[in-house]
């Protein structure tokens, strides 16, 4: 086996070199804690996307979303922004008020509502503006010693690849690591991630760690990505939806230990109960249990669960009801054979909607109007 990579992001040794990908609506404090309970306390678990503008305006819902668990270290926050000024101001607030220990920047969002305005995955095409935003964040974080990392896609589409420039620029400006989701924005979540792009980015960016992201659904996928690309760490998103124990499997694999046995349905029920309890702790019972509903199909995927019970679980309203329903599952049912296959959103490719004339001049550093969305969490 190739040696597992060793990863340092600023002052933090990330060990094993595994990162929970930021996922809006998913990686809240409860889900991060659950993943950490299975994985290593020294891996990195990134929060849901927070928009810089909302931090600057101290939007109440956003400030509430910036919640970390007791003892959660490093507190890893992802910021989205399109304007160097508001990005700098947001980072100053975050580090000045000691609200996070690590800032990741999101330049990968493919959602039309965002790219249409020039935000998300559309932005790195404007390389001067991209540079200014990264620089603004790094400078604002520097006095507090908070490392900044940058996450992006391969490009807008096959004709407009931006990742090599983005990687070099981010590293140049003092980002402490770069992460590549190896798809174009046009691919959204469809098809396969092109891991050869991760290898190319690794060749192009030699002074900071390069993290690979896309289609890690099993511990073996993570080992394969490292072996094929030479990346310094892996970022795992959809693979852990309904499978937070993947972090235990990843930890074992990276440490050369035998994998923990896959959970039977009884164990999954226990984990679901724990997830529900953590969500209820952080959001209150009503909101917490409602939030758990979206995870239900992922947890139960491939297990023999009658359609009526499945439906009831998907509409569960209280912790007591959850407990009762989970008790009715067949606790001895074995983990499904295809548990490690793709899961979560896939969708289909689509032409990326961009502002009029966006592709005309990559050097234009005008801040795009209206792209500084206020809505944190996607
Ligand atoms: C539900 C969902 C929400 C996401 N939200 C974000 C986000 O807020 N910020 C971000 O940088 N990427 C976000 N992503 C992208 C993931 O971080 C990751 O790059 C992508 O899912 C590819 O990795 P995977 O194949 O391991 O899932 C999201 C993905 C999903 C599925």
TrEMBL record:
Could you say which residues bind FMN here?
A: 22-24, 78, 151, 181, 237-238
Gene Ontology molecular functions: flavin adenine dinucleotide binding; tRNA binding; tRNA dihydrouridine synthase activity
- The signal peptide here is none
InterPro entries linked: Aldolase_TIM (IPR013785), DUS-like_FMN-bd (IPR035587), DUS_fam (IPR001269), DusB-like (IPR004652), tRNA-dHydroUridine_Synthase_C (IPR024036), tRNA_hU_synthase_CS (IPR018517)
What positions does the domain DUS-like FMN-binding occupy?
Answer: 20-322
Q: List UniProt keywords, sorted A-Z.
A: Flavoprotein, FMN, NADP, Nucleotide-binding, Oxidoreductase, RNA-binding, tRNA processing, tRNA-binding
E.C. designation(s): 1.3.1.-
Record: active site: 109
PROSITE patterns membership: UPF0034
Q: Which cofactor does it need?
A: FMN
Gene3D superfamilies per the UniProt record, alphabetical: Aldolase class I (3.20.20.70), Putative flavin oxidoreducatase, domain 2 (1.10.1200.80)
Which portions of the sequence form the region Disordered? 332-378
Q: Which reaction does it catalyse?
A: a 5,6-dihydrouridine in tRNA + NAD(+) = a uridine in tRNA + NADH + H(+); a 5,6-dihydrouridine in tRNA + NADP(+) = a uridine in tRNA + NADPH + H(+)
The record's annotation in NCBIfam families points to:
nifR3_yhdG
Role summary: Catalyzes the synthesis of 5,6-dihydrouridine (D), a modified base found in the D-loop of most tRNAs, via the reduction of the C5-C6 double bond in target uridines.
> Which protein family is it in?
Belongs to the dus family.
Protein name stated in the entry:
tRNA-dihydrouridine synthase
Please give the organism.
Answer: Saccharothrix violaceirubra
Taxonomic lineage is:
Bacteria, Bacillati, Actinomycetota, Actinomycetes, Pseudonocardiales
């Amino acid at each position: 086996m190739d040696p597992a990579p060793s990863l340092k992001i600023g002052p933090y040794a990330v060990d094993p070199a595994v990162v929970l990908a930021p996922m809006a609506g998913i990686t809240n404090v409860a889900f991060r804690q659950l993943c950490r309970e299975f994985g290593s306390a020294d891996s990195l678990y990134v929060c849901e996307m927070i928009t810089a503008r909302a931090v600057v305006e101290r939007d109440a819902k956003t400030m509430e979303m910036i919640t970390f668990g007791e003892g959660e270290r490093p507190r890893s926050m992802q910021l989205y922004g399109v304007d160097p000024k508001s990005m700098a101001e947001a980072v100053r607030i975050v580090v000045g008020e000691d609200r996070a220990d690590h800032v990741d920047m999101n330049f990968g969002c493919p959602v039309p509502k965002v790219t249409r305005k020039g935000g998300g995955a559309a932005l790195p095409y404007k390389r001067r503006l991209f540079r200014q935003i990264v620089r603004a964040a790094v400078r604002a974080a520097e006095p507090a010693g908070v490392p900044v990392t940058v996450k992006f896609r391969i490009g807008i589409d096959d004709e407009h690849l931006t990742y090599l420039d983005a990687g070099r620029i981010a590293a140049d400006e003092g980002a402490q690591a770069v992460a590549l989701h190896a798809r174009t924005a046009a691919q959204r979540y469809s098809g396969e991630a092109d891991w050869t792009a991760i290898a190319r980015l690794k060749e192009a960016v030699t002074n900071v760690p390069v993290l690979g992201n896309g289609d890690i659904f099993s511990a073996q996928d993570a080992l394969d990505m490292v072996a094929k690309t030479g990346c310094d760490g892996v970022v795992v998103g959809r693979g852990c939806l309904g499978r937070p124990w993947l972090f235990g499997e990843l930890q074992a694999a990276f440490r050369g230990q035998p994998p923990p046995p896959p959970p039977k349905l009884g164990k999954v029920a226990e984990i679901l109960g724990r997830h529900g309890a953590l969500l209820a702790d952080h959001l209150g019972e009503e909101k917490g249990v409602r939030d758990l509903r979206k995870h239900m199909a992922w947890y139960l995927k491939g297990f023999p669960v009658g359609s009526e019970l499945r439906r009831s679980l998907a509409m569960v309203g209280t912790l007591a009801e959850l407990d009762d329903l989970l008790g009715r599952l067949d606790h001895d049912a074995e983990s499904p054979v295809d548990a490690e296959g793709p899961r979560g959103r896939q969708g289909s490719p689509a032409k990326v909607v961009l502002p009029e004339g966006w592709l005309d001049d990559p050097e234009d550093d005008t801040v795009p109007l209206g792209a500084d969305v206020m809505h944190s969490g996607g």
